[in-house]
Amino acid sequence: MRIRLLLLSLFCLCAAMSIAAVPPLLNYQGLLASITDVPADTTLSMTFRLYDGSAPGATLLWSENHATITVIKGLFDVILGATTALPDSIFNRSELWMGVVPGSDSELSPRTRLVSAGYAFRVGTVDGASGGRVAGNLTVSGKASIGIGNSNAGNYSLAVGENNLALGDHSVVLGGANNRARGDYSTVAGGGSLSLSDSNFTHGYGATVGGGSRNGAIGDHAAIGGGTSNTANGISATVSGGVSNTASGGWSTTGGGEDNTASGGYSVAGGGTLNNAGGSYAVVAGGYSNEATVTSSTVSGGYDNQAAADKATIGGGGSNVASGNQSTIGGGYSNQATGQRATIGGGYGNTAASGATVGGGESNQATSSGATVAGGQSNTASASYTAIGGGQYNTVSDGSYATVAGGFRNDATGGRATVGGGGWNHARGNYSVVAGGGGSSAADSNLATGTWSVVSGGRRNMASGDQSTVAGGDSNTAQGVYAFAAGRRAKALHDGCFVWGDSYNASILSTDINQFRVRATGGAWFYTSSGTDGARLPANSSAWISISDSTKKRNIRLVDTEDILKRVATLPIKRWSYKVQDPSIEHIGPMAQDFWSLFHAGDDSLGISTIDPAGIALAAIQELNKKVERADALEAEVRELRDMVLELKRASQAKGD
Question: In whole angstroms, what is the distance from residue 490 CA to residue 511 CA?
């Protein structure tokens, strides 16, 4: 049967839902009639083909067979792509031709060209689109405006949102309302508000505002992340967010907070409120009402702090001022680092001048170069390279390198002088030392005024001689050079004297140079070994007692008293004077060498102890006693014989008469 086909319509069912993909199907309708135009009523198979041209040599792009198609009164319709996928890439060409093969017949000729439906012409733009989704890549070769009331006057600009303006070339407004991107290559990502006064804007080349409201990126390459009422008007300046913050210096940064200003080049205001980083490279990390106004100055936090000099630093606290170049205040309250390289660790009301250091405490002052006050209260180090460790009301002045370690109202005014502690002590001589002691009033103070003088402690002691020493105690005086006094009321008034006073309340005084004077009303002991060997001077005695206990001796044996007496008899006894004494002062006794040669007793041939001559004398006395006893016996015998002679004489005379 010869038939002919009339094409009624061909269109794409492309009314996509808001989420579902466009169905890849075509609805094809036709009229099938005989050669005499009689509409067919039949069932048959049909094959549909798409070509890139109408000529016989055109390329077959797609083909689909439908085995059973019902024709009623000549009309039929079929869904193409239902059995063989119909890719959208087929339609990416200027011409597309349909060929139809009914049943076993040849392909009908001519082929039918696929054309657009009337409204499909609007696909050239997206005006009036009410929704949908682009699943793949989207390329816009010109400008784009998405939203209501937007204007993209700049070349290659993009405006998205409501009443936004992209006025600079290549500028972008990505959302929000009433935002303005006026600088070339500038961006406003969003934010703004219904009021023009709340809008974000960019003036600078390449400037960016991320969001928020009333933010303005005025400088070239300036950026504002968000917040409200922020301004970045320096070149490459940045405000991350917050309220009413300003980054006006080139390459400056304000991190956030409120009413902060980074006006110096490369300066940073990290956050907080009412902070000002006004110097180049200055930093205020946070806090309240802090200022870093000079090059490379830094305030880390706190409130009302001022880093007002080159490279000055304040760590925190309140009302601190670092006004010296390279000065530092760690924290605390109302501290002042006024000099170059001055340092205050913290505390309250402390002051440090050039090169000086105050570690902390209250109302301490280090006012000279290299001076240090570690802490305490109301201490003053006013001479160069002096130090006060702590305590209260201590002073180091006049003498460089002097030290007061601590205590109360101590002063070290001599060069390199030292007071270790205590109260009301004074080290006023160069290199002098008062280790401690003193008392609660000036009357109890210790005083070291001599060069290299030392008072170890106690109270009311004075070392006024050069290199003099008071070991401690009460009311002692070392007045002479190299003098030493200790105990109670010991007065070493002459050079080289050693004076010791016991607890008895009376003064003991030197009377001449190089004396050794000791008052020991309970007696004195001198030990020459680790045991009890030595000598003692008992209380109220004037003679030394040597240790002579038999339990302390060895090699004990009797001596030959006769031999001892003979040796004593030959020992030269001479009159002499010591070479170091005045020649008018003479002594009587043997020479040590003669004594050693005869008796070999003692330690050596250069001295004679008191114990050996006493023993030798006792042995000689014993021998003399023997001789006396023998002499007495002889004398008695002589008397007896004399009496006998006299008796005989009287008898003889009587006979003669």
Answer: 12
Contacts of 71 (CB under 8 A, 6+ apart): 32, 40, 41, 42, 43, 44
Other Cβ atoms less than 10 A from the Cβ of 642: the count is 10
Buried b (16+ CB within 10 A) or exposed e, 599-632: beebeeeeebeeeebeebeebbeebeeeeeeeee
Tokens encoding 306: 């001022």
pLDDT in tens, 390-428: 999 999 998 889 999 999 999 999 999 999 999 999 999
CA distance 436 to 24: 103
pTM: 0.71
- Beta-carbon contacts of 540 under 8 Å, excluding residues fewer than 6 positions away, are 521
Burial bucket for residue 195 (CB in 10 Å: 0-12, 13-18, 19+) = exposed
* DSSP for 128-183, written as a single string: T-------S----SS-EEEEES-B--STT-EEEEES-EE-STT-EE-SSBS-EE-S
Q: Per the structure block, which two tokens stand in for 483?
A: 């003098």
* 575 DSSP assignment: E
Contact 5, 108 (CB under 8 A): yes
Q: Give me 341's structure tokens.
A: 């390289």
pLDDT level of residue 11 (50, 70, 90 thresholds): very low
CB 49 within 8 A of CB 66: no
Q: Whole-angstrom Cα distance, residue 267 to residue 291?
A: 12
Q: How far apart are CA 276 and CA 286, in angstroms?
A: 10
Beta bridge partners of 284: 269, 299
Q: What number of H helices and E strands is found in the chain?
A: 3, 60
- pLDDT tens digits for range 102-141: 888 888 888 988 887 666 655 555 555 555 566 677 777 7
Q: What is the DSSP string of 585-597?
A: --EEE--HHHHHH
**Sheet of strand 524-527: strand arrangement:** 524-527, 534-537, 545-546
Q: Is the dihedral of CA 416, 374, 330, 278 positive or negative?
A: negative
Distance between CA 424 and CA 51 in Å, rounded? 116
- The closest alpha carbon to 331, from 295, 355, 307, 296, belongs to 307
- Within its chain, how far is the Cα of 331 from the centroid? 12
**Distance (Å, whole) CA 593 – CA 590:** 8
Residue 642: enclosing H or E segment and its boundaries? helix 611-656
Bridge partners (DSSP) listed for residue 347: none
Report cis status (omega within 30 of 0) of the bond before 583.
no
Please give the Cα distance from 266 to 298 (Å, whole number): 12
**Other beta carbons within 10 Å of 62:** 17
What SS3 state is found at 627?
A: helix
Helix, strand, coil shares of the chain, percent, nearest 5, are 15, 30, 55
Q: Any idea what DSSP says for residue 233?
A: -
- Is residue 105 a contact partner of residue 46, using CB atoms and an 8 Å limit? no
Integer-rounded Cα Rg, in Å, for the chain is 61
Tell me the two tokens of residue 477: 């005086």
Specify whether the CB–CB gap between 318 and 312 falls below 8 A.
no
Q: Which of 213, 152, 212 is nearest to 182 (CA)?
A: 152
| Helix pair angle (592-599, 611-656), 10° resolution | 70
For 459, the 3-state DSSP assignment is strand
Amino acid residing at 475: S
Provide the sign of the torsion angle of the four alpha carbons 38, 39, 41, 44, taken in this order. positive
